[in-house]
Amino acid sequence: MFPLNDGNIPFEERMEILRALFGSSGTHTCAEVQIAKQIKIKQKEHIFKMLKSAESNEGVMVREPGSFYERRGTKEQYTVEG
């Protein structure tokens, strides 16, 4: 996320900036950049449902709302694998 990875911008705000740049009506839309869909989890059971739908993938990335970018896994961001 180039200059957006300085750690001072909450995740949701970084995603808004990326959508404004690279989203379907963004200023720099291109086929090489795709923004992954984000889904807000409200209950633990929802995570398990997501894991079932992602069976062929490695897992589901879970992030605490409002968390900041870090170059490593933390208690605010981690991957849940099935």
From TrEMBL:
Gene3D superfamilies: DNA ligase/mRNA capping enzyme. This is Uncharacterized protein. It comes from the Eukaryota.
